[in-house]
Queue: 3 jobs
Job 1
Amino acid sequence: MPDNNKHETNQKKQQLEEYTVEDQGKKLTTNQGLKVAEDEFSLKAGERGPTLLEDFHFREKMTHFDHERIPERIVHARGFAAHGEFQVYESMKEYTKAGFLQDPSKKTPVFVRFSTVAGSKGSGELARDARGFATKFYTEEGNYDLVGNNIPVFFIQDAIKFPDLIHAVKPEPHNEIPQAASAHDTFWDFVANNQESAHMVMWTMSDRAIPRSFRMMEGFGVHTFRFVNEQGNSYFVKFHWKPVLGTHSVVWDEAQKINGKDPDFHRRDLWECIENGDYPEYELGVQIVPEEDEFKFDFDLLDPTKLWPEEDIPVKLIGKMTLNRNVDNVFAETEQVAFHPGHVVPGIDFTNDPLLQGRLFSYTDTQLIRLGGPNFHELPINRPVCPFFNNQRDGYGRHTINRGQVSYHKNSLANNTPEPASEKEGGYVHYQEKVEGHKVRARSESFKDHFSQATLFWNSMSQPEKEHIIQAFSFELGKVQSQSVREQVVEMFAHVSPELASGFAKEIGVTPPEVRGSGVTKSSPALSQENSTKSPKTRKVAVLVDQEFSSKEVKRVLDVLSEVGIQPEVVSSRFGVLKGADGTELEVQHTFLTADSVLFDAVYAVGGSKENKSFIQQAKAFIHEAYAHYKPIGLSKEGKAYLNSEEMLNEAGVVVADDDQSEQFVEKLIQSITTHRHWDRNIMM
C-alpha cells in the first residue's frame, strides 16, 4: 500500500517551494517588479517639504505593512486604558484657537490607552520597550488625538522606514523568537546599519523603558506640531504629559521576575488605583517656539530623533488630566478605540516632520483592516461628543441611518447641505505654509547629526542610571549571536560615549573601541529620573507578619502609613486572621506563594512566633530580594533577625524600630519609601 500521507506531505512541500523566495543578493523591487532606486526617503516637495501622495512606493510599502497582522494591532497590541477628564489651567488664546484649551472652568472627557510597542497582545507588560501613551480628547469641536509614547524621540526620521524597524524588532520570522524583546540579532543589525536610531536606543536601554507603572510614566507627542491662533499666527509646539507622582522605574532583574510573577502588573496597578480612588494625574506641558525662531537651534525642530532640551525651551504646564473611571469592557473600548494623529481640531496643525507625515496616512489605513471597514468612527468609544454630518455612506459596520435622497456635494435638492463651514464658523483651515522645491527622495542635511543628542542623554544621567544603561546593552547584545553585529554596535556607540561603549564591549567579548565621542559636553538635568518628583502616595508596602507578632506599635505604624497615602498589605505563610501578643488582629491579604517582593515598593518586617521556621525562611528570602533591588526596608525589633549580617542594618534605606523611637521610626520609614530606591546601598548577597 502506498504511503498516502507521505505523498500528500511531499505535494504540499512542492507547493510551498513554488512560493519560497530567497531575497539574498537580489535587487529591491515593488510588488509589481519595478526596481526601486531609493528606500531610505519618502518623496517630498523639497528636502524639508511635505511627503507627496504620488509616492507609490511609500504607499505600497506602508499599506502592506499596515495590513500584515489581524486582528490585533501590529504594534501597541498589548494595551490597557481608562477614562478621565482634562482641564486647562488658563486660556491658551495667545497661541492657539483650540476650544478645549480656552476655558479653565470646562472639563473635557478623555480616553487614554497605554501600551507596549513590540510584543503581541498576550506578552508580558514589563518588557524593555517604549510605551504608547495615546489620549483621545472628546472636544465640542470634534475628537482630538494626541498619539505619543513615553519617550520623546523615535528610532527613525522618515515613516518609509517604519516597516523595516518593526520587522527588525519583532520576533524573527524563521522561528518566531523572541517575543516582546529587542535582545536579538535582527534588531541590533538594524540599529548598527541605521544610525539615526542612536538617540532612541539610549532611551530604550535606560530605565525609562521599564517604568514602575503607567501612573509614573511621562508621555510625549514625539513630533513637532503647530499651534495656530485666531490671528493666523503659527507656533511650533511639543506636547508633554508629566505624571504628578513623578517618573520612576523598576530595575531589570525585577522586571524579568515581575513578568513571571504577574505579567498583568501594569494594568492591574492602573485598575486597582482607579478603583481605590487614587486617581492617576498628569499635567499637560507644552514647549513653544515662534515660527520665526525655527532655525535658531543646533538641531532641526522637525527631526523626530531630536528632543528640545527643557533648559533651552522650558515646558509650560497648561492643564491637568485625571483618570477616574475604568473601562466597562476591554474589547469594546480598549481594543476598538481608534487613534490617529490626523484627528485634530482648529488651532492644532501639522509640520513637515517626515515621520509624522507618514503616520497621517498609516493610521487610518490600519484601522480599515483592524476594525472591518471605514465606519470605525461609529463605534461607541470612537464617536465624537459633537454631532457629525457628511455625505459618506454605507460600508461595513454602518450604524447611522441616513434619510433623504442626496449624498453628494454640491447639490440643489437639499439646498447644498451639509455644506462646508467657514473658518469663522469653526471650519478647519490648514495653516498656509509656503512649500516649494523639487520632487526628491532625500533627507535634509540638518537631519544628519545622529549622535549629539544621544551623548546629551548620556551626559544627563546619574551614575546609577549610567550603570543600568551599560548593563542593558550588555544583556541585549549578549543575546546577539552575530559577532559582526556586536562589533558594529560597539563601534557605533563609541561615537556616543567611549565610556559607554567600553563598558559593554568587554562584557560581550568585543575589543573596546578607540576613543571616539561626539564632543558634546552639554547635559540636561531634566532627563534624569533622579531629578523627578518623589512621593510616597500609592506606594505598596509588604508587611511581613506571623502569629504572635509584637503588636504594640504595628497597628499605629500601618495607620500612619495609610494616612499619607501609602498602601500597606499584609503578607504571611497562609491566609486568615493573625493575632498579636496583645490580641490585635490583622487579616492576611497575600501569602508568600501568591506574592513576591518584586510586586511591592518596600518591605516592613514585623515577624512573629520564633517557632515558625517556614515563615522565617520565606521572610528572609523576601527581604533580601527587596534589599538587592535597592528598596526601602523597615524592621521591627524582632525583624532585625531576618537580615544576614549586622552591616546591613546600617545601609541606606534600612530603618529599624526601637522601643523608645517609635515616632522617629515611622517618619524615617516614610522618608525611605519616598526616596523610592537607595542606589548607594552596598549590596551583599
Job 2
Amino acid sequence: MRRTSASLVAGALVAALAWASGPSSPAVALDPTAGVADLTQDINQILSDSRLTIARAGVVVKSAQTGEDLYATDAGKLLTPASNTKLFTSAAAAETLGLDYRFPTTVLNAGRKAGSVLTGDLVLRGTGDPTMLAEDYDALAAQVAKAGVKLVTGRLVADDTWFDGQRLGNDWAWDDETAYYAAPISALTASPDRDYDAGSVIVAVSAEDGKVKVTATPPTDYLEIVNQATTGNETDVLIERRHGTRTVVITGTVADSYQEWVAVDDPTAYASTLFRAALKKHGVKVLGPTVTGAAPEGAGELARHESMTLGELLVPFMKLSNNIHAEILTKAMGRKAANQGTWAAGLKVVTDFARANGAQVINMRDGSGLSRRDGFSPASIAQFLTAVRGKPWFPTWYESLPVAGNAERFVGGTLRSRMRNTPAADNVRAKTGSLTGVTALSGYVTSADGEPLVFSIMLNQYLSASPKDIEDQIAVRLARFSRTAATADVSPLRAGQASQAGDLECSWLKPAEC
C-alpha cells in the first residue's frame, strides 16, 4: 500500500495526539460568548445560499474542549449521511476488532496426502480480506506447490461461509449493481489494485493498429468480454457489465487509452478462478471442478496469507471512502460479536457502539452509506466525534480521515482538491459524503485561537449541482473562528479553493485529483 512520507505520518500522529481528550489548557482563555455571535451570523449567511432554499440543511459546531454548542440548525433532524456513515463503521471496527486485526486466507487439505498426491479436496477459505490481489493468490498456490502437492484428485472447494450469502446491501440501487463502488460482498474476493477495490476488475481499452485492444487487470478469463467498440477521432466509450451476468459489453469509439472499474457478479467464483489459474501455473493439477462449500472439520492447513492490519487498512478505506471495506468490516464485526457474518449482526454492533457514544438519532441500513435509508442527525454525529476522542485507537483513526487541501492522495484523500490555500488546508480532517441530492462533511478543525472544534454539515434534497462549496465555506470560517478577534470574511472560495462538484464521492470516479 502506498504510504505517506515519514514526516507526514509523524506530523499526522502529533496532530492526532493533540486532538485526543485529556487534561489540556486552551490556547486562550475561552469567553463563552465572544465571537460566537459573529460565527452564527456568518454561518447563517452562508446557508442563505439560494441553492438551499428548497433543500434541508443541518449543521452543528461544538467546542471539543468545553462541549459548548457554538452553532446549531436542525441539529436533531434525521438526514441522509451518505459516506459520513463510515465514521461510525470505522470507529466501531477499531473498537470491536482492534487495530491489529487481520483477515486470514487459507488453503486447506480436506483429504489424504501421499507423496505429491492429495486424495480428496483442496479448500480455499476466506474471511473477507478486501486487500487480496492476484499476486497473493499466486503466493498461496506457490505455498501449496512447496508443500509437495502436485495432483489433487478431488475438487477445489471455495469456502466463503465466514459471511452469509447476501451479496448486495439493503436498499442499494439496481443501477449501481455493476459499479465497482457497489460490488457484491463475499468472504472470498479479490482486488485489481492497491486502492483495494475488492470484487472488481479493471477493463481497459486502447487504439492500436486501427483496432480496439482490450485488457483486464488482473488478467482473468472470468469475464466474457464482448468488444463492439471501434477506433475513432475521440474516445467516447461505454464499458458495462450486463446485469446478473459475467458479460462485459464495450461500445463506442476509442482514440485514447481509457479504463473502467467493473464489479464482478460473483466475487467467490472470481477469486476461485484466479487461484485455480495460479495453481496450474505452479504445477498443481486439480482434477475435479470448482465448487462452493464449507471446509470439513479437521482439514489441515497447507498455505496461509494474512492481510495488513486494520490500522493500516483504515487509510485506503477512509481516505478513498471505500464502500466495500465498510461492508466487509460490518460483517466481520457481526462474525466476531455474534458468530454471524451478516449485515444484521454487524449493524447491531455499530449502532450499539454509536448510541453508547452519543449518537441517539440514528438509522443504519448498511456500513457504507450507499443506502438512502441510512439516517443520522448532525447533533448525533458531532456528539459521537467528541466522545471517541478518548479512545485508545483515536490517533490512528484520526489520521485516517481525509485532510483538506493536502495533495498527497493517501493523506488528502477525498478532500485533497478542496479548501486549498485557506486556513482550513492541512487543518480540517473530515469525512466526506456524496450521493445525488446529498452531501455531507463531518469532522474536526482547529480554530484561529487553537481551540479544537467538532462539526457536522449535512445538506439534503437540493436540485442543483453539488453545493460542496457551502460545506467548504463553513469549514474555512471555522478555521478562522476566534473568540477574541472579529472575523468578517465569508466570501465565496476563489479558484483553486473551491470544491469539486459531483453526485458521487470523487474517489469513486477515479479522477486524477482524487
Job 3
Amino acid sequence: MSLLKELNEATRSEIQTLWEKGDTKELERRMRPRIEFGTAGLRGKMEAGWTRYERLEYASQGLCQYVLSQVKDASSRGIVIGHDHRYNSERWAQLTAAVFLEHGVKVYLYRGLVHTPLVPFGVQRLNAACGVMITASHNPKNDNGYKVYWENAVQIIAPHDKGISDAIKSNLNPKTWSVDQVQSSPNCLDVTEDIKKLYFSAIEQLKLPQYAPSAQPIVFVNTSMHGVSHPFVTKALGSYGITVNPVKEQMLPDPDFPTVPFPNPEEKALDLAIEMAKNCKANYVLAQDPDSDRFSACELHSTGVTTFTGDQLGTIFAAQAFEIYRDSGKPLSKLAIIASTVSSKMVEAMAAKEGFKFVECLTGFKYIGNTALDIVEKGYEVPFGYEEAIGFMFGEVRDKDGVAASVMFAQLAETLHGQGRTVNSYLEDLYKRYGYFKTSNSYFICNDPQIVDTIFFRLRNYHDQKSGPGPNYPQSIAGLEITGVVDLTTGYDSSNPPSYEPSLPLSSGHMIQFRGEQKFDGTKIVLTIRTSGTEPKIKYYLEGSGKDSKVVSELLPRVVSELGSDWMQALVYDLGHP
C-alpha cells in the first residue's frame, strides 16, 4: 500500500480496510481509473478512492495552477466559490479557497448557502478568473460535485477540461489541508450580500412587457426539494408581487433528502407538492432542484394534473422570447434561440416559420452557454436557450437558472390567467400553429462500461453488409424507416455527402441520433441515444411529430419497446429501466 500517500486519515483507513479484507472488486471500482473532469467538473460518491469524489485537494491544486497559467491577471481577478447544503460542501468550499489563497489568488468565498447560478453571475460581475460551485445538483444524497466556470462565466469546455485534468495529475502533492487562513486572510473577501443584491436587481429586469398580476385569484405551490432555493425564489417572485405556498416538508435545506431520495424534479419527485396543491386548490406547482439551477412545473385543472416536460417548457419559453422580441420591433433576423441537439425540434419548426435563427449544439450548458457567447459575437441577440433536462437560460447569466425560470413561468401564468387562459392552453395554441410534437425521454441503467461499449458497437455494426442511411446502422424501428443517422462519436452524418462529416463537434461519449419516418402518413421521429457524463445511464431522447396527436402518441411506446428489446437488448444485459 505504498501507493496510498493519503494525509486524510479517514479516507486512507477506508481504503486500507478494503485492502485488508481482500475486496479487490471494490478496490478496482474505487481506485481505477482516476475520476475525470466530466460535465464541467467532477461529480461522484463521497467515498475514499481515486474514482470517487474525495480528491478535492488535488482538483483545486490542478485548477489553480492551470488558471494561473492560462488567465491574464488571474491572481488579482480571483476566484468565486459557493456551496450548497450537502454533507462536506462547506468544508470543501473552504478547502478550495485555502488552496487558491496558498497560491496568492484573491478569493471571493460566498458565506452561507447559495444557489448555483450565483457563482457564474459573480464571476461575470466581478470579472473573476474562474468560479467553483460545490454541489451535486439533483444527484442522490451520497454524491457531491465540483462545478467549474471559466473567466467567461460559462462552464468549462475543451481544451480547458483536458488542461485542468492534466494539471491535476501533475499536482498530486497537496500544499495545504488546513482551512484556518480562510477566516483570517485579507485576500479572502466576503461580497455575498452585494452580489445577491445585484442578482435580484438583474432578475427584476426579466419583467415581461405585458405582465400584470391577475386580479383573479391564482395560487402557486413551490417545492425546493430540500435544497437551497426557497429564500431565492420567494424574494425573486416577491419583487413581482407573486407569493407562493411552500411545501414545508421540503422547504428547508436537508442533506438527507428525507422525502425524495432521488431529488430530481424529472424523476417523479413532485408527488408531495402535487398533493398539497390539490388540497389548497392551487393552479400551479413550481419546483427547483436542490441547487436551484433547474426548474419544473405542473398545472392543475378539472380533469387532472399536467406535468410539463422540459421540452414543453422550453417551447413555451422560446415562444415567449420570440413574441417579446417581435413586439419590440427589432428585426427577427437578429434573434437567435439555442437548444441542445437532444431537445425538441419544435423550436426549430417555430424558427423556420417565424424567421428567426435557431442554433443547435451539443448536450449540456457548457455548450449552450458558450454557443450563446459565440452567436452574440456575430451580432445576434440570444434572450433564451434550453436543454430538455429542465434547464433554461435567461438574461445575462449564460447558464441554467431555476429562479429565473420560476419568475418567467409565474409571470406568464399570471398574465394568461387574467385573460382567462392557462399555460397549457397556450401550449396547445402553439401546437396548432407549429405542429404537434411529443417526447418520451428516459434511460437504461448500466453500471458496466464494457457492456455500454458492446451495445453501441452493435448499433454501429447492425448489419453484415453496408446498406441504408449509414454503414451498418439499423434500417428501421417500430415500422418506421430510418432516414438519417448522425453519429457524434465516430463523426458520421448520413445527410452530408460526400464527406459525411457532422456539423456539430464530436461528443466525448457515445452519441447517435436517428431520424425516422412513417411513409404512409408522414409521422416522424427523432431518437437520440447517448451515455451520461455523470451517471451510469444510457439516455434516450425520443420525439415524434405529425399532424395527428393520437397517431404520434400511440407510436412512441412502440418505438421505446423495440429500442429496449432489440436495439439495447435490455434483457440480455439486465439493464434497469424506470
